[in-house]
Structures are given as C-alpha cells and as structure tokens.
Amino acid sequence: MKFHTTGLLTAITWVGYTSAQHFKRLGACPKLGCVFPPDQVDFFPGQYFDIRLEVHAPVNGSEAFNGGVPDQQFSFCIQKGDGACEDVSTFFNMTSEPELETWSFSYYEDLFAQDADEPTLVNVASKAYRALSLDIPGHYTAKLSYYNGSETVAHWLVRESPKEAKAKNVLLFIGDGMTQAMITAARLLAHKSINGRYQSLMQMDQMEALGHQMTHSIDSFITDSANSATALYTGKKSSVNALNVFADSSANSLDDPKVESVAELFRRRTGGPIGMVSTAFIADATPAALCSHTRDRDQYPSIVYEYLFGASALNGSFTWPTGCEGPDVIFGGGAEQFIAGPGSPNGTDFYKVFQEKGYNVVYNNTELQATGNDEKTLGIFSISNMAKWLDRQVYPENLLNQANSPTGDGTDAVDQPGLKDLTLKAIDILQARADKQGTGWFMMSEAASIDKMMHVLDYDRALGELLELDDTIRATIAHLKKIGQDENTLIVVTADHGHGFDVFGGADTKYLAAQTSDRKKRAAVGVYQNSGLSGYTVEKDSSPLNNTVVIGAQGPNFPVTWDPRYAYAAGFAANPDHREGYAVNKSGPRLPAVEVETDILDNVVNPSDQPDGEYHAPTSVCPDADSFAGFVVNGTLSVDQPQGVHSLTDVSVFASGPGSEAFRGVYNSIDIFFKIADALGLAADASDCDSD
Amino acid sequence: MKFHTTGLLTAITWVGYTSAQHFKRLGACPKLGCVFPPDQVDFFPGQYFDIRLEVHAPVNGSEAFNGGVPDQQFSFCIQKGDGACEDVSTFFNMTSEPELETWSFSYYEDLFAQDADEPTLVNVASKAYRALSLDIPGHYTAKLSYYNGSETVAHWLVRESPKEAKAKNVLLFIGDGMTQAMITAARLLAHKSINGRYQSLMQMDQMEALGHQMTHSIDSFITDSANSATALYTGKKSSVNALNVFADSSANSLDDPKVESVAELFRRRTGGPIGMVSTAFIADATPAALCSHTRDRDQYPSIVYEYLFGASALNGSFTWPTGCEGPDVIFGGGAEQFIAGPGSPNGTDFYKVFQEKGYNVVYNNTELQATGNDEKTLGIFSISNMAKWLDRQVYPENLLNQANSPTGDGTDAVDQPGLKDLTLKAIDILQARADKQGTGWFMMSEAASIDKMMHVLDYDRALGELLELDDTIRATIAHLKKIGQDENTLIVVTADHGHGFDVFGGADTKYLAAQTSDRKKRAAVGVYQNSGLSGYTVEKDSSPLNNTVVIGAQGPNFPVTWDPRYAYAAGFAANPDHREGYAVNKSGPRLPAVEVETDILDNVVNPSDQPDGEYHAPTSVCPDADSFAGFVVNGTLSVDQPQGVHSLTDVSVFASGPGSEAFRGVYNSIDIFFKIADALGLAADASDCDSD
C-alpha cells in the first residue's frame, strides 16, 4: 500500500519511548529517521553496500507523530573524519538522485495490542542508494536530517586491513547451533576416560587457537541462522530472517539494503573458486548467506536462482555489481529447489539450468566419489535436509520409506554421503580448479543438523552430527597435509548461535522404564556422584580387568554404543511440552510436541514420542502418562512453539593454520568476517580507488 | 566395623562387570584391588602424597568373590621408567612397614537394590603409606599384586616443570558454578549495546588468554565444588565431597590418602603469604580445599582447625608434613565455625584461638578498611554465607532481620564488605607481608554465590554476583598497577563447574502477570526477533533521541535497573518443581521448592515463591496456579532434590599477567594446578633430593 502526502512539517517534541520491547517499529531504527547501514557498522575496505533512508510518521500508537505525514524533504550527508559533511550524491559522485519512495506498514506495540488486534500504522518516505563502497580506512559519519532539525547519525568505520594475505585458502566449518556444552557432551560420549583423564580428545580440543564470539542480532538478543550467518560472512549484524541485507520496512523483501559477503568479495578480488557445503537443504540460511540477499530467508527459489545469476538478475531494478557467479561446489540436500515444480525457480528443472551453466550434477555418494575434480559440481543428495549420521551409521533402516530421492523419482535416498565425504571431495574440486587459475579457494562446510536435531530435543542425533563434524575436521586436516595444502589453509570452526543445553546427570533407563508414575521415574536420574561414568565407550560385557580404550563401532571417534542402560541425562533451558526418557530414539528423529485443535495454536506432548520404542503404544493425545517409558515435562515456551529455540550463550571458535592466531580471545560474530578477509588479504588497494 | 580373616585364597575368574553404573563399589577402583593415587595420576615434582592400597572381597552381589575373604598377602612395587619394580618400602627407603588394616563396607549396586534394601557387603584388607613424594620427573609404574596373580597397575607421571618462576604472585579467582552462558547473560544485563555492538565489555572479555577446562570428577562425570577445587589446587581428580584426598572405602573420613595443595606447596617452597577469600562460609569446599584434607567436606570444625594447625594435628596418627600454617588472610562468612558452640572446633571460641595465634580479627567492612596490613588477618562478616550483591546494593532491606552478626550477638550483619572490598584489602595485606619476607604471595578469591543462587534458580542474584566478580577483577588489575605489582602478578579467572543455564528470550512481565492461565502466561515469552533488546541498561523514560550509553545505577559495570518490564527469560537444563515469572525477586533469594509430608522425600512448588511479590498471596501448598504471577514448571530432577544441580559443560579460563599464555586452549581442570605451580616456579630441585 503506497502513501502520498505533501503536507508541511513542523518542529516537534518527542513522545515517551519505551525501549526493549518485544515488538519494535523497525529493528535497527530507534528514532523516526532511519539510516541503513545504521550506527556502529564497520566495513571492510572496498566492500559493496546499499544505503536505505527512511522517515517514519506513525499515525497512531505511542509514537504517533505529525498527523501521520512523513517528511519527504529529508537530506543526507556523509563526512570522512573531521571533514565537511557532503551531500551523499556529491560524496559518491552520483550522476542522478534516486526516486523518492513512499509506503506504509503496521505493527503491534505489545502483546496486549496484539490480543486486541490494535495495530499501529506508520507512513514512510524513503530513498535508496545502491552499490556503493568506501575504500579508504577511517571513520565516517552519516547524517540524516528530517522534520526540520531532527537528526539520525550513523558512525561508520572502514577498518584497516593488511594487504598481504596470510592464507591462500580458507575453510570455514559451521556447527549450526553448537555450544561448548554440546562439545563437552560429545566428548563424553565418544572419548574414553580413565580416572578422569581422557585417553583421546576431540579434534576441536586440539586446534591452535580458541576464541569466543557473541551471536546476538542487531535488534534482538537472540539470533536465527540467517542474520548470524550474515554477521559471520559480511561483518554486519542484521535482523532475524535477513540474509546479507539490513531489514527495511518496505513490503518487498528483495529491495532491502544489501551488503557484500566474503564469498562475493573473494570471487571479485581473486577470481578463486568457492565451495558451499551443507547437510541442510541447500537454500537454507547458513549456505544461502554466502551468495544471496533477501529480507526473507524463506524465499528458497530466488535464493538458489541468485547462486547462479546474482542479485541484479533477480530484480533488475536494483543494481548489485557482485555475486558468487555460480559457486564451484554446491553440495547438500534440498532437491525441491531443483526438481521442476513449486519449489524451483519459475517452476523450471533447475538441475538442467545448472547443467547448461557447465555443472556436473551428482545425486548420491557413489556418483560423488566417481565424478572428476575439474568442473563446477552440483551435488544434491535428498529432498529436504540430508539424513543424520545416527540414522546413516547406526539405524540405516530409518533411511527407508522416505521417498526423498533427489531425482524426484519417489525412491529413497539411501546412498547419501556424510559431511566428511562432502568436504573432502569439495576440497579436491576446489584445489583442482584453484590450481588451474593460480588462486586459492574459499569454502563453507556446515553441520546443519546439530541445530535441527536440538530443535526437536533429539540430543543424541544432534551429538552424532557434532561428532561427524569433529571427525570431518580431523580428516580434513589429514587430507590437507596429504595434498600439501595444510600450510596454505586457514581452518576456522565455529557456530552461529546456541541452544540452551547441558548434561546434568546419568539416567538408569531400565529403572526409569520400570516405574509406573512420573514422579517415581524422575528418581532414575543420578546427579553428582550418582551421575556415573559414560557407558557409551564401554563394551557391554567388559570386565574389571579390561581397562583399555575401546574403539567406537563407527570409528575411533564415535561411541561404542548409543543405548547403554546408564544414559546421560540432559535438558534444555526452554522446551515445548514433551516426554523425557533419556533413551536414544531408534526409529528416527523425535517430534516432541504436536498441535491439537483448540481456539489457539496449541502444542502438547506428542503421544507417539517414546524415547524408548519398546513400550506401550499411545492411544490418545491425552495419554495416561504411566503407560509410557518417559515422564511428561511441561513446556516453558509459548504454546505456539512446537520446538526448542535458540539461546544467547557465546559460542566457541577454533582455528588452525596460517592466520589462526587472530581468532584467539573474545569478540563479536562480525569480527569473524574481518579476520577471514584479513587472512585472505582481500582489502582493496586504496591507491587504485576513489571512494569519495 | 572391623573385619578379620586368615582364609586361604585361590585363583579366580572374574564375574561379569557392568561399568558406568550410578552406584559404584568404590569410585576410582574398577577392580578388586585398588591403588590410590590411581592410574593416570600426574604429580608436580616433590609434591607430597599418601598411598592407600585396598583389596576387596564382596560377600554378595554381582562381584561376590572368594567367600568374602580379602587377600591380606598383597604386595606393592613401584618402578621408575623401564627400571625394576621395587617393593614400596625399598623404593621409598622406609624404615618400617605400615600395619595391615581391615574393615567392611556396603553399597547398593543399583536403584532396584536400593528400593529392595539389598546392600552388597564388601570385606577389605588395606595398607597406607604416608607423606611420600617423587621429585624426579618421568614415568612411574605402581603395581598391586593380589589374589595370586591379579594385578592393578597405576601409571603415574611426574611432570617436568621449569625451575624459573614467571610470576611472583598468583591471584586465582573462582566464579563458583560460572559458565560462559552466564557470562554472556551478565554482559547483556550490564553492558549497553547499540545495533548489536557492545559499547563496553566485561573485564573477563578483555583478559590476555582464553582457555577451557573440563570439570568432571574422577569417578562421575558431574563434579561438586570439593573435588573440582581439589583438581584445581592439587592437579588430582577426586570424588564428590573429597577435599585433597582420594576417596578410600574406610569409614574414617580423615584417613583417606592425601595430596598436597598449591597453597601448601607455595608455603613450603617459598614461605610466602597465602590469602583465602570467599563470599561463602569460610569452611565451604572452595576455600577449604586450599588448606584441608578430608573425604567429607561437611566436617566444618575440623576443616577450620586444619587451617591453623595442619592435618597431622587433626589426627596425629597420620603424618602430614606440610600445611597452610595459618593463611595470612582469611576473609569470608561462616561465623558458626568461630563462635563457641556446636559448629566450632571442640566447641571453643575459635576467634580467640586465632587471636592467640597472632591474627587481627575483624567483623565488618568498617573494621576491615581500618585494620592495618602488617598482621595476619581473619575477617568473618556473617553467620553462614555472606549477603548477595543484589541485596547489599539494590535491596538492602533484605539484610535486616537475619540475626547473622558474625559476633553471634543476634544483630544483623548489615555492614558486610563485597568481594571487591575483600580482595583489594587482601592484596594489601599479602603485599605488605610479602615485602617484609622478600617473597611473592598466593591468593584465591571466590565469588561463591554465583553457584549458590543458581542452585535456587535465582539467576538475577547469581548474575549480580558474577558482575561483582567481574568488577572485582577490573578493580584488582587497576590496584595492582597502582601498587606496581601488575607485572609480577598472574591473574587466573575460572570456575569449578557449571549449571545448565541459558537465556532463550525476553519476557513481558506485565503481560505474564495479567494472564490468568499457565498456558497463556507462557505467551509472554518472546523468542528470536521478539526476544527484544536488554531493558536493563536503559533508563525507563529514555526517548528515541537518547542513544547514549547509560551508566549503571550501581556503577558503570552494572545494570541501570533490575526490574524492567521486558526481562530476559532464562531456564535450566534441570530443575525441581517451581514457578517461573521471570521478574527479579525483590524480597531476597528464591526458595523454588519445598518439602511436603509424604511417604518419600518429596519437593513441590514453593507456594511462597512468587517471582513478582506484588501478586496474590498463597493459601495452601497446592495453590491454584492462576492466582500467581508465574506459571508452574514441573521438575526433571528426582523429587528428593529441592534445588538445581551442577552440569557437565567445560568452563572458561581467563588469564592475564606473567605466565598467562599457558592458559590458552583446551585442557583438563587438573592442568590449572600445574600451570600455576609452573608459573610460580615451585618445582623441587631434583639435585637436592633423593626420591628413590
């Protein structure tokens, strides 16, 4: 809905303003005049970005102003250091001024307003300036003037960056949702301890540098994977659901002000090959943020379209001079964006489009291993997210009857590679292509289902994914040594956010199942001295004379068994209603809560979710708790949430290889981008540029 | 109960053995022959330790053996490297062999056995060798031979250590129970963020070195504060409740095999002054482990007795040649161990005993600040644990009507110092005394109530304690600079274990209180984009034009307010039954659950625990949930647990000053001891010694 006005504007006093509400008019815009990129943004020298200016006039609500008429006569200037503030057109030598845009949007000021369905309407006047960059390091001040004397000031910094590269290649591993508590739990499961001393360690434990990064969003303290990936890849905090854009208030999710990602920058500066590897569907936020730009992470068809053709092709009216230009390796799930149909770009066979652009396309692990290393390669191995390590390696029968073949032929995707297969093959392709061009390479490899399984409270599956990630890092280091690239390659391992999760004791699953009341079942959990020792690394028939390390059934860095009688007991900082029995879910990922028909969206304990499948079948959605192995835990989340949620905790960063020392200490998520770009030496040569 | 036998023993085959159970025969003894120190123990050169050998004969149960007759003819030898295994008496040049001891003990093999009251009886034959040390670095093998061919082997390592000290002084801060998730939450509360960028940081964020340590116990994966402090101070993993001993199976908790702590070692090697500072009662585990040795951390009178007189004085039959010899500074709570009465050693006035040993004794902050720096000083500021920062600084009325004066006169301890007061004064005393002797100093300063408040789910109070710790570290660094000791002093900050805790969203406390059903109250919690921004750093009437950092009401590193309408929403991995409303508890620490009279020990929601005190008073122990501000959360812990419990997660280590680089990376809790002892250069001079 567009809004037009020509009314005169008068000076004003501000209405009272309550900060920190859940429901904000517009995330990174605390005033009525908005500048994007907002205050406190740092740029890498030469990194492309758009500017969006907005002036708001709330029609009603606590900030109602000027009769709902936004100032269209706003002005905007930029100054470098202590210099004069030059009009933006002059500063950037623009030949034309963008058109004024107007629109309106509405929001609820709080939950009471939402319950009463009393939205606040805001009218907006706006301009956008596209595809700019600041090449010269230093402080910049951007000032939006509006409403006859009001000002919104944004302090920007273009950081200094070394011109010399420390690393030729960068491999960024992301354990989605992985916290230190999860790494600790995974170590307990997979590594044998004797008298409190681990006999082997996680590969992450042994990296050269340890750091912590803060994951919060620009306008809320809990992040999702889209805006956290944006922070890691662009050095810019953004909003939940936003990929490489700052969130504006317009309805069009493709017109929000964009920023350039490290993958785009690497491609533009070096021409070197790019790898995108994930166990999620490949249009999911963490891989998507390498190469796409949208306010709405759910626009999967446009996201994969942008992988090949860039942002300008998506929406020709907004110039964007850079892009991934078809990543050299794209490996993951998500065939629904490639099989001709409702999920693919314009309903086309998007495999065919990739083939036409010169890609090898592979659909299973056998084909993956057999394909050459010289061509760009698209590997799509399932519809939706790929199979979990625990199902592939321990309970393979769960891969059957999924009808998830990436070809769309309705068969099961049973020959799926794991993260290690994907990553090692990706290295070989990237290295072959980089050798041909005389460049390095950049890859992101994501263990996506740590997060996805924590969401459904399936911590065993999540920790299986985490152990697979650790095993992949170990194999990667060995492989890089083998091909002589270990001294050229910076490896960074981190997460994008956490889930509130920790192990607090040990559970006697046999005793728990034998009890007939929920309160008695809780006595099965031992704490402190009764938490016991890990039963996951011990052969079931071992004797007191056997005090040696037992090699895991699925390799040396995995548990021997996933269903010991004495399981670890873990819990979440927040959860939906669910049932807990602490035994591994042998029949596939959990679904802890299900929706029931009421007047509101209401999720209750899933009657089919029995942590130990050997017990009584449910008979209704309100089952007798006594007939189940687990006991009922009522939720703490809003009942409209069927899953667990992300958490605030800082996450760990582990790094090895050239440039890894920069990853020590405590810093913000955005610093990861700068550290990687510094290591790769991607800074613009300021002498070649004329930024102002 | 003593047990005697002279029966002949025959060779055996082992019965089946299930590892990882909750209920173990004896922690670090997986076989029927036990060696303490057990397999995998490392020593610092010259560090004193006892040896305890046990041979077990279970009378019944799954390990029943030899008709319940233990082998009394066991032998024990030690070899260095590849040398011959010499009998222990020869190896240590002993003039006499210790007496054989015998006893019996019983335990339950699992929860079914406990429910049925079917204990397993074990008869034991044992010897103990006291006050030994190994001065020469290298590998040692200790072998216990028993039952005509069975063997229990312990591999010991005496680590290499530099002779040169890097640091003159060491200040070890322990945030009891402090995880990275808590540090992240505290940062959110106390430090203002603009557009996702913190305008100030925690002091911990800015330390020179970041590490992680693993906290697990020797015989269970969840630790308590006693055995984790033992690990940090002696470099030895031990059992829950054990202070500087390995847990043997005898009934006497003072005869368990001891190890020397870093405080004792520092005193013995350098003669320098020792400081013990805690906001807990001073006989609590974390301070106690500096200077006492017992299997049972609850023996408070004997613990404080040992502070002054050492372990040999406690129990003259067990030689222990070392001790703290009266720490130069003892500051904390716990007057009940000093006021003549049931809690004090032998019922004496123990203040008087300290005075007789030359101590200044102070009872409040005014006296603390006024006292000189030259004498040993005992400062006891309350009965039980000291007041919490939130009560001292924000809700001081909660200090009234406590009758907790340290003098025992029944008045209130209202003039209590905070951790910063305690620590800075302790530094001045230690420095003055060290200067006089020409030595350095060693201090441990504990923020004890991070843990104590997390136990009762009072996360606001816990985070107040954490912020006070951070503020103390900041002030300490400044003070050390001021007195010219910053380049002499290694500061190490860590925790002893975690609590499963994280922030997952923001709660609209006004909306929550206004809802009339538990399920609707849960809708007050916003997640992701609806988690909001911290309201703790914002003045309540700030306007959209006010975008500047607001200084905290209690100083720049604390929140402006503790009760914003939009509070953070946090939860625990495990909890007792309780009610949750996310508002600060203004009337004092929470008591989340209370015991009800049933046939078992059963804890239920405390009807008086209303996170926001402004709402309806409870009328019964089974209240109508709708009449309270919070909603009921059923527990996941055994119903005999009235509190939250510790968790598994690795905890962070921060260090600055000389030697701090050694604290980078990932390691075990025991390594903290070795790193500190290395930094202080406490290694024995092997050339002066004759260890074997």
Would you spell out the secondary-structure blueprint of this structure?
The structure is a homodimer of 692-residue chains.
Chain A: E1 33-36, E2 41-43, E3 49-58, E4 75-80, E5 86-87, H1 88-91, E6 101-107, H2 111-115, E7 120-132, E8 138-146, E9 150-158, E10 169-175, H3 180-190, E11 193-194, E12 197-198, E13 209-214, H4 225-234, H5 262-270, E14 274-281, H6 285-291, H7 300-314, E15 329-333, H8 350-356, E16 360-362, H9 365-370, E17 377-380, H10 389-393, H11 419-437, E18 442-447, H12 449-455, H13 459-482, E19 489-494, E20 501-508, H14 509-514, H15 518-521, E21 525-526, E22 566-572, E23 578-580, E24 593-597, E25 601-605, E26 631-633, E27 651-656, E28 665-668, H16 670-680
Parallel strand pairs in A: 2-9, 10-18, 10-19, 13-28, 14-15, 14-18, 15-17, 16-17
Antiparallel strand pairs in A: 1-3, 3-7, 4-5, 4-8, 6-7, 8-9, 11-12, 13-27, 19-27, 20-21, 20-22, 23-26, 24-25
